[in-house]
Structures are given as structure tokens and as C-alpha cells.
Design brief:
single chain, 602 residues, alpha/beta, Glucose Oxidase, domain 1, 2 domains, eight-stranded mixed β-sheet, 14 strands, 13% strand, 4 iron, 4 sulfur cluster binding, iron-sulfur, phosphogluconate dehydratase activity
């Protein structure tokens, strides 16, 4: 089917907007290609340092006759999503050596878990960890001894940070290799019920702990459709994974076969061969539009409204929230995965998964089919699924029908006609909202505000019985400049209780909400943030706000609010402890959420 004219128009607008920085970026990548890896030009001492521990690969590295693959890994064994990566370097080295090449771990990057730090001081480092990861990936590849790279990462900030880092070395091929989700445990809906019961004082900590351990029980990514699994979806829609590899569980035989094939594929695309496909030619304006389409069709994480903008800017491509909103209006919501449904990602994958969705969206003219991918060919390759036959990895056509229409629906008969994310504009500035899990009757809220400067103060007010009527809870001084823009997901259970009592309730904040944000409407990423003197800093208890997700507005109904002097807040308590003192330069340099909340320029 022909490309939808509105998708074409939005893409053309992005291309025009990005013309200057994109051209400068591509010129830099072409110059880097001409220089090539410098290992052949290193001094004998430099080469000896680089190859000293390479064992059987020393001679091949010294002669430089074969390709050398750099491995950038986010492995640690504390986090379930990244623990499977422990085995990957050995697996990759052995496979590449068998093919005549070499592979080295170029470096490691940190990986932190928002699930661990949720509601804690460490969450104030979370968003900044993305840019730290980008910096670390840059250091890893700075030895300039590699012909291609593979990136091992899964979760919230790790994949965006790795993508930013990969694009700095955009003249190299880059393949992203996932670890896969853990097998299904306690159903996400049942886990959420226990959390809400604990928040209401209806069960104890022992019951809560038992439920959490039953939900998070083994190696692999968490099974709900939050930021980590949204990242995996994007890597397929944008052509950086091999097809249909995102949601295969760790430990499966085919998982290892896909890891080996991804590494081989990375080297096959290097400038030493005939299929040179650098990442700068994969991550084009069309690829980012495809990523936004996937985000809307799956009802993905709000965090990607920041990350995709930052990722794109690393390659000279300028996205804005209006692009997301207009694409959301065009793209049907085709998936129901928790918190936007009862299923988890394993159920989603079994129902047809990303391959089915890509095929449907291509058929509807909502995806660019002609993007370059690491699999070779266009996006049509991503409708296929991998199989092992007698130990040999092959791809076969994926399903063309949903295998469970309660989880996955065709583009022509979706769960709703538009995607799950919206831009809001009005008297407070701009913000965004995820509505894929918000019931229609809760998508418009007009109510007086209660203003807080910390999420702990919100919890205290709830416990004191102060949040009893219709209310819009405003939590400000949570922006990137103020305290690193932490997620406020720990407020979800108590706000859900208020909603369940029949109250009209919403959250408005210049901070973030979790990728698992659900049924309570939350206008997040408010710009300008309070620390910059934005209108959110002028609100007082009792002012009336009106949030209308359908209309895309967040309006101040009380007169005279914008004439007030913005309040200030003492942020000294957020400057120290749990590593926060190390990030003062980040808070001073970071840009606004609407430009990616990055330290790499606004």
C-alpha cells in the first residue's frame, strides 16, 4: 500500500527542520569513514597494549587482515534484565573467531534499574544515567580499533544511551542484541492489586514482598510493557535488532543462535566487505518516524517522548512533541499489554508480536518500508520470525493473523483509532500524557489543585486523609534542572485509590511518570519547569486546572495566576547523597524535557 500522505508530510517536515544539523553530522561520519580504524596506524607499543590480552587473536589483530568487532556491554548481575549478558562476550568471541575475525569487549556502561530506585534518592540519577551511558560508550569506542560494534543493553536509559553513543561512531555498523524477557510470573494485574491494597493499609509488607518476588522471579526483562520493553520494540521498528528477537526468553537455544548471528551480521556490514551499512544510514528520519509509529501502535512508554528526541539529535535529526502527537492521531492502538491490558510481553509475542504489527502497519501505509536495517533489505524483513532447524538458524514468514485478538488487533479493527500518547498545551506551557490505559471517562478532569514540592509530601497528605475530593495533584520542582527529573510512579497506587473512590483525580508535574503509568491521567514533563520560573511555579492550592486529553489541552481556569511571581524552592536537600553531588554539572547543563533533557545541547 502507498505511504499514508500524513506520514509522508510529517517525515518531510522533520527532514526540512533537520537539514542543517543532519548534513553536518553526515559529513562528519563520512570523514570518520575515510580515516578508518587506526589500529593499523598505532605505534607498536600502542598495538601491544591493545592486543596484549587477546590470546589466540593477537596475531590476527596485529596483522589487521580481518574485521575486529567491539562489544559494548551493560552487563551486571544485580539486574535481571542484564544478568544474561554475562555469557555473551564469550559466545560472540568464539563465533567471530570461528569465522576468521576477532572480537573484544570495548568497554562496559552502567545499568541502573528504575524499579529498584523508584521513590528513592537514587531515582534522581536515573535520567542522567542515559547521558553517562552515552559518554561511557564513547570512551569504549574511542580507541578506534574496531570495524563494527554490537551493543548489549535492554532497560530504560541503557538503550537510549547506547544509541546516542553509537551515533557518535555512526560510520561503524551497529547491531543491538537483546537478552529477552523473563518468563511469566504473577500476573501484573494481580501484582498491582496487592500494591494498592498495601497502600490502603489492607495488607502487610510480607504479603507485598511475596507478590513482588512472584512477579520478578528470574533472569530477563520485567514482563510488563514499560520503558525497557518499549526500547526493544523500537530497536526492531528502527532496524537495529535482527527480526523478531526482542521477546525470546533468556536461556532458549535460539536466543544463543540469534546472538551469534547478530555479531556475525555486524562484521559483515563493515567497510571491509561489500555490504557496508553504517548506523548513520540506518537511523534516518524515516527510521525515527517508524519508531514513533511503533510507540503509538503499542501504547508505549512516555519516557520515549524524551529519549527519542535525544537519540535523534545525536544524529542531527530534530523531533518535537508535535510530531509525536500528530502521528498518534494517525496510528491505531493495536496492542493491549499491561498496564494497557492484562497480558504481558510473553503473551504479546505468542499472539504474533512485533512481526504481526509491522506487517499490519506496512499494509496500512503507516510505516516507511524502504529503510535500511541491520537484517538487510527493508522493513518487510521484520515480518519474519526466526526458527532453528537442525541447529541452523533461518527465518520464515510470521503470522498474518492475530493469534489472540484480546491482546493484538489488526490495524483495520484496532482497540482504538488513535495511539496512546498526546501532547498537551495551554496556560502551563506544554506537557504530554499517556492515555492508552486511561478510561475515556477519566481523560477529562477539572478540579482544584493541591500543590506539593516532593512526592513524600503527597504521600503524607494522603495518609492524613487530605486528598478526599476531586483533586489535581501538582508535584513541581521535579524537572531535569531541579533534581534530575525522577519518575513519580510510587504515587500511582494512592492516586488509583482516590480514583477508585469515585474522585476525579489527575497528576500534573514537571517530572516523569513510569513507563508503566496506567489508569490515572498524568500530565507530565511540563515545560517550562518550575525551577525555570514556569507557570507551574505560580500555582497555589485551590486554583482550578482543566486537563482535557481529547482536546490536547491543560488550561488554568483561575484568573490572575500568570500575574503572580513564581515561587522558589530550597533544592539543597537534592544536591547530596546517593551520588547526587557528582551530578551537579549535569543539573546545570541539562536542556528542557521537550528537547530531550540532555546535557549534549538543547
Amino acid at each position: 500500500m502507498a505511504l499514508h500522505p500524513e506520514i509522508s508530510r510529517i517525515t518531510d517536515r522533520i527532514v526540512a527542520r533537520s537539514e542543517g544539523p543532519r548534513r553536518a553530522y553526515l559529513d562528519r561520519m563520512q570523514a570518520a569513514r575515510r580515516q578508518g580504524p587506526s589500529r593499523g596506524h598505532l605505534s607498536c607499543s600502542g598495538q601491544a597494549h591493545a592486543f596484549a590480552a587477546a590470546g589466540p587473536d593477537q596475531e590476527a589483530l596485529a596483522t589487521g587482515a580481518q574485521g575486529n568487532l567491539g562489544i559494548v556491554t551493560a552487563y551486571n548481575d544485580m539486574l535481571s534484565a542484564h544478568q544474561p549478558f554475562e555469557r555473551y562476550p564469550t559466545l560472540i568471541r568464539d563465533a567471530i573467531r570461528a569465522g576468521g575475525g576477532t572480537a573484544q569487549v570495548a568497554g562496559g556502561v552502567p545499568a541502573m534499574c528504575d524499579g529498584v530506585t523508584q521513590g528513592e534518592a537514587g531515582m534522581e540519577l536515573s535520567l542522567f544515567s542515559r547521558d553517562v551511558i552515552a559518554l561511557a560508550a564513547g570512551v569504549a569506542l574511542s580507541h578506534n580499533t574496531f570495524d563494527a560494534a554490537v551493543f548489549l543493553g535492554v532497560c530504560d536509559k541503557i538503550v537510549p544511551g547506547l544509541v546516542i553513543g553509537a551515533q557518535v561512531f555512526g560510520h561503524l555498523p551497529a547491531v543491538f542484541i537483546p537478552a529477552g524477557p523473563m518468563t511469566s510470573g504473577l500476573a501484573n494485574e494481580d501484582k498491582a492489586k496487592v500494591r494498592q491494597a498495601f497502600a490502603a493499609g489492607e495488607c502487610g509488607r510480607a504479603e507485598l514482598m511475596a507478590a513482588e518476588m512472584a512477579a520478578y522471579h528470574g533472569a530477563g526483562t520485567c514482563t510488563f510493557y514499560g520503558t525497557a520493553n518499549t526500547n526493544q520494540m523500537l530497536m526492531e521498528f528502527m532496524g537495529l535488532h535482527l527480526p523478531a528477537t526482542s521477546f525470546i526468553n533468556p536461556g532458549a537455544e535460539i536466543r544463543d543462535a540469534l546472538t551469534v548471528e547478530a555479531a556475525r551480521r555486524a562484521l559483515s556490514m563493515s567497510d571491509l566487505g561489500e555490504e557496508y551499512t553504517p548506523v548513520c544510514e540506518v537511523l534516518t528520519e524515516k527510521a525515527f518516524v517508524n519508531g514513533m509509529v511503533g510507540l503509538m501502535a503499542t501504547g508505549g512508554s512516555t519516557n520515549l517522548l524524551i529519549h527519542l528526541i535525544a537519540m535523534a539529535r545525536a544524529g542531527g535529526i530534530i523531533l518535537d512533541w508535535q510530531d509525536f502527537s500528530e502521528i498518534s492521531d494517525l496510528v491505531p492502538l493495536m496492542a493491549r499489554v499491561y498496564p494497557n491490558g492484562l497480558a504481558d510481553v510473553n503473551h504479546f509475542h505468542a499472539a504474533g508480536g512485533l512481526g504481526y504489527m509491522i506487517g499490519e502497519l506496512l499494509g496500512a501505509g503507516l510505516l516507511h518500508p524502504d529503510t535500511k536495517t541491520v537484517a538487510g533489505g527493508g522493513l518487510e524483513r521484520y515480518t519474519q520470525e526466526p526458527v532453528l532447524k537442525d541447529g541452523t538458524l533461518t527465518w520464515q514468514p510470521g503470522t498474518t493473523v492475530s493469534l489472540n485478538d484480546k491482546i493484538l488487533r489488526p490495524a483495520a479493527d484496532p482497540f482504538q483509532s488513535s495511539g496512546g500518547l498526546k501532547r498537551l498545551a495551554g496556560g502551563l506551557g506544554t506537557s504530554v500524557i499517556k492515555i492508552s490505559a486511561v478510561a475515556p471517562e477519566h481523560q477529562t478532569v477539572e478540579a482544584p489543585v493541591r500543590v506539593f514540592h516532593t512526592q513524600e509530601a503527597v504521600k503524607a497528605a494522603f495518609k492524613a486523609g487530605e486528598l478526599t475530593g476531586d483533586v489535581i495533584v501538582v508535584v513541581r520542582f521535579q524537572g531535569p534542572k531541579a533534581n534530575g527529573m525522577p519518575e513519580l510512579h510510587s504515587l500511582t497506587p494512592l492516586l488509583g485509590i482516590c480514583q477508585g473512590r469515585g474522585q476525579k483525580v489527575a497528576l500534573v508535574t514537571d517530572g516523569r511518570m513510569s513507563g508503566a503509568s496506567g489508569k490515572v491521567p498524568a500530565a507530565i514533563h511540563v515545560c517550562p519547569e518550575a525551577l525555570d520560573g514556569g507557570p507551574i511555579a505560580k500555582l497555589q492550592d485551590g486554583d482550578i486546572l482543566r486537563l482535557d486529553a481529547g482536546a490536547g489541552t491543560l488550561e488554568i481556569m483561575t484568573e490572575g495566576v500568570l500575574d503572580r511571581t513564581p515561587v522558589t524552592a530550597d533544592m539543597s536537600g537534592n544536591a547530596f547523597g546517593t551520588g547526587r553531588e557528582l551530578f551537579a554539572p549535569f543539573r546545570a547543563a541539562v536542556g528542557a524535557a521537550e528537547t530531550g533533557a540532555s546535557i549534549f545541547g538543547s
